[in-house]
Queue: 4 jobs
Job 1
Amino acid sequence: MSYFISEISAQLIKLEKEKARELRKSRWWHNRLAIGKCYYCGNFFLPEDLTMDHVVPIIRGGKSTRGNVVPSCKECNNNKKYLLPMEWEAYLKGLNE
């Protein structure tokens, strides 16, 4: 696993987390949760068992926007951590080998 140095300020992280909290209140997000599908594993869950995940994590420069947040089951979200999509795919491929 490669490591990275984050140059994202604590203030910017706080701002993006605030945006995410507001996005969680939106009808758009509630509609996404109602589908019940984890973006990563494709399994179905109750809405309360899904979390908001940033495809490109905030710590890696991602934003709290509709195009960058997806419903994720807790297991996928915990395993993905701060990985970028390509790194996540490599992680999954390694599990299957």
Job 2
Amino acid sequence: MNIRQMALAAAGVLVLSACASTKDEPVAPAPPLGPGAIAGTVAADRDGDGIIDGYYTADGIYNAIQGPPCPPPPPPMPSRRGERG
């Protein structure tokens, strides 16, 4: 019985040693960033409308995207009543 356990342990070591390798596999470089992307951040769509609202930095802080203010609405059209000509 003891010889059988030793043979089983030796077979296990032999099988598992085939999986071990000391070579370091080369890591592919990251793809280039797209326009407007910030390296090391994750985009965030907080309201779920499909438009990115901000981004999370590596330390977990949310930063909202600040755009320019919207232009004011056009002035109201002159009424058709009143003086003419």
Job 3
Amino acid sequence: MRRTETIRPKDRKYEALVRHWLIFKQFVVLRRRLLFRTYVLTPLGVILVMALLYGVDRLIKNCIKITFPASVAVMLINFAFMCILASFRRPYIDFYLNVIDVPLSWALRWMNVFFTPAFVTLPLSPWISYKEALLIVAVFVIGYLISFALLSYITMLGQKVTRSFKLKSIFVRQDELHNGMQEGSSFAPPSTHKRSSSTSSDIGEEEPVNGNESTNSSIRIFYAESDEMEPHDPLLDLANNSGISLSQLNSRATSGLHSIVSPKHLPSDTIEPGEEAIEIGPSRRTVTNGPSQNHHISNGTFLRKLKPVIHKNPEVHSAMTVSSSESPNICQRAITRQYSKQIDLYFSISMWDAHLHHILYGLGFFATIFTYYFQWYTTPFHLFTAVCMFMIVTDSEYIVNRPKLKKFAHPVICSMALTWIVMLISVMIKHRKVVYFLRELRSYKTGRNYLRLFDNDNYGYHQWPGAGDIFSSCMDVSIVGLSLPMYTYRKDLKRHFFSMVPPILIFTAATLFLNPLICYKIGISSKRAIGFAGRSVTLALGTPLIANLDGDQTVMAVTTVMSGVIGALTGGRMFDFIRVPEDDYVTRGLALGCNCGAIATAYLLGVDRRAAAISSLSFVCYGALMVILSAIGPIKHFVHQLVGLN
């Protein structure tokens, strides 16, 4: 007896390991295409985009001999190329979008991570006096309020002048959400009316099986409703702080449910004669009693009603009902046990879906701890530290389940603080002196990104890229990815062109010239005054903008993120205070897009999807125009004269 008692725990552990290993193998088989796309095609695509950007940068500097960021140039060229390609046969643009979507959507999803180097290196920036700090805060607050009001009123005036000011109900706007894509395109979502009518017809046509239904043995699993996102919408990527594509999770959730319930992935003895086949559909799911000789379930049974759900959000508005007749030949306990095993397998694979990247980056973090303490090159440790701290903020249930806290706890700011703490503890363990913390920060971003990787004359052979340089290199890929939302909602830009362009032009001139001039006149230093020119530009485009103008990147980064956070927190109340109509999505989208950037666009996704589309167009067009103007020599010289620089 003692011997068996000592063996049983080992057997249980062995069985548990075998069971988890089999589940992992099944997960790899079911998701092999997605895993290949994520961990093989995406890195290759990012490297190819960087190679293209490097070639364009050499072409601009050596042949054209002007100062212009290659990432913005490729973004504009890509947008124009997609518009031209869309005028030809549709399969061409669909194929091209399928190819570029692999690296560019990934870059958009991780864009917030690429913002962190500007904040992590804040202790390296020169100290400022209390007076200058208070002046910066005052200019920021007053400028934010004035620009918010002026953008709103100028946009409403432009709509009245062009006679395009039409108040539409929320229902009309939701029907027009997908007008940026061509009908019939593989990237265009199905019509809302068709989807709702099909759902209602399924509910109306459903009849009880065999004339009656048993409510005693019904098991209902409810899914929350969400019908606002389509699979390939770039706004999803802009709003997503996590590295997982929300659209990929949509298809994974529904396809995973079908794959597990499908007999192809179940043991042959799971479905026995007399047991019931489970139909999966968008409304109610009913278990029908099948004859004992027909115990094979075809895949068509599951796919018939599953197809409308494949391209929806995983939070599908539906109820799953398993009911059986009161026949004494049916063992309800066996049915429940069979169904519970299937659901358990489904959730196990879903856990691998949701947390595989957490496991991989966590293993990378612990592995690089040893390289940090025993090697001189600290970039791997810094890289995994930044990503893991970012994941802790974005995926922590404590923050995710508290919407109010989530608004204030912006991932860029919170992950920066956690990164500092981890780096400080590591430095104290390794060097036992706080002075080395600043040295670590200098090695965090050396300036040797992909554009200067082969510049041995200025950087030497022993100055390798830091984690911040890797992030800044990926930032250029995300700038190219901003062409995707521009293309997706190009028809909105065409429809509201005369309402959007005048406010953007006026705001561009005021931001580029008045902000530095006012800041310099009230006592802010020249470099920091120029940094205020990028206060409302999204950080992806503000970085090359301030680099062209030779301004302070730190001021630009802090004010940009704070503008987005404040816009997300107070945007709705500000619009109510200045009496902007709730149905005027053009004004709301343009004001938040130009004044608050991508962070406000993510906020608008949960409030008004159409306003979010206008917002994405606004901040991309506004930022691109600012970068173009900053690359013109006479304009750059004029800005320098405004702030007293020769």
Job 4
Amino acid sequence: MRPVPAAILTLTLGLVACTRALEQHPESGPPTMYRPKPSIAVWEVPRQTLSPASIPQIATELPTFMQIVTPRPTSTTTDCLRQGGSKIETSLSTSLLPHPMEYLVYLPPCYYYRSTQRYPALYLIHGQSYSHDQWDRLGVDDIADALIAAGEIPPFIIVMPRDRQWTQPEEDKFGQVVADLLVPTIDLRFRTLPDRVHRAIGGLSRGAGWAVHLGLSRWDLFGAIGAHSLPVFQSDAPQIARWLDATPRASLPRIYIDIGEHDRPSILASTRWFENLLNEKNIPHEWHLFTGYHEEAYWQAHLEQYLRWYTQEW
């Protein structure tokens, strides 16, 4: 992987979930305060019946993993910055999930050369019907390489896990595995800064729902939440206010929310419901209503802005 010049950080639009092109006009400002009706529908996902399984206690379960790619150390700082970061594909096995959890790890330029340096970690979750390579395929690693090489953001690690289920969090144990198994595994295997201040979580679409779920219910793990085109989980809607109230004011995560103005009406309503709740509770957050649709072209166009926000306090 080689650094990409800053002049071409705006990537060619990749795979899109919709054939409609983005309209070209400036970003819209924050919408008028949105007050949802009591019957507002948050995102509903298909439910599936899982066969009963014996679930071990987290404290006694030791995850196993498999490393697929091991990059070589580089010789000089200049060389390693030019070569860019490295990617490792790994899986974590646990009886909490029917299949091993695959995940990609992006290691920043010079990770192996600077053998004593420790790094913040950003967890990025893909959208529904996609896989753990979605963020990488959209170019997040190339943009990170270029911004790090230019000295515009600090070096950091990216973790991109795969969620195979489409169910609500009480049925899909993906979130539990991320919080209780994946985070400690990453902190053991890689040179992270293992504290919430240096750990952030974000996601696209359903992945944004997971980012809000994990970032608020496990505020002890994550210091920042990025929700990109957010459909709130149906089962989370009654709990979000309680999670916010239970979090010490000084420990509230930084929150970034964005969505395209032409996104699906139900997802726009869900995102605005969440943003309105933050306003009602006087919780600081960054909110953007951009031009665009619920598609990969929209997310790809904002990757650089996302990374600059996640890393701005590192």
